[in-house]
Amino acid sequence: VRSGGATHAPPQPSAAQARTEPTGPASTEPGSTDRGSADPGSAVPKPATPALPPSPPLRIRIPAIRVNAPLMGLGLTATGSLDVPPAEREDLAGWYEDGTVPGETGTAIVAGHVDNADGPSVFYRLGALKKGNGIGVERGDGSTALFTVDAVEVYDKDHFPDDKVYGAAPRPELRVITCGGGYSPRTGYQGNVVVFAHLTGGSRRASASASP
Asked: Secondary structure of the chain: what % helix, strand, coil (to 5)?
């Protein structure tokens, strides 16, 4: 999610974008979902938008920052951290395929590079997103999961809040992650930009009508 080839620093989230809503129960594994029962003494509101059935994501679109990128499947590295797409593919993003599918109940994870040795990459402008911006994830069944941004934050890599970012959610949520924060030529970017979003709609590609 890093490289440092861009000549200008990528946009960083403002303090006004800080997330205020509580996240779901903690988990350090990306995209996990807590299937335990809720506290019977607390009221759990129904999600405003029903979850979509599972279908592999193919493409992510973020109109506000002109992102229209294919998605590849990502796993975990040998050390247990989230893998990333090949650095030379500046047009490519990835999703954590062993976790929640975007649109399902839970926390789905998408990641991509901010830049590479040749310049800006797919999520170079991710830090410029604002609350209320839209994200669309096109899926293999012809549907598009539509998300709305709740917050955009930047975290130091040495103090990355795994539970907050990857923790289970009671509704369909999305995290979009890239590098950010300070930059050192020796060690690269010092932090990560994280977009928090939740599902607010779904659409299906219209099939071609039959000729009369």
From this structure: 10, 40, 55
d(CA 164, CA 159): 12
Query: Which CATH number characterizes residue 88's domain?
Result: 2.40.260.10
Q: Record the tokens describing residue 158, joined without a space.
A: 């040495």
What pLDDT does residue 112 have? 98
| Overall size of the chain counted in residues | 212
Angle at CA of residue 181, ends 112 and 176, nearest 5°: 30
- Per DSSP, the three-state class of 128 is helix
Closest CA to 85 of 141, 2, 20, 164: 2
Q: How many domains does the chain have?
A: 1
Helices (H) and strands (E) in the chain, counts: 1, 10
25's CB contacts (< 8 A; 6+ apart) are 34, 36, 167, 168
Q: Mind listing the pLDDT tens digit for each residue in 79-113?
A: 999 999 999 999 999 999 999 999 999 999 999 99
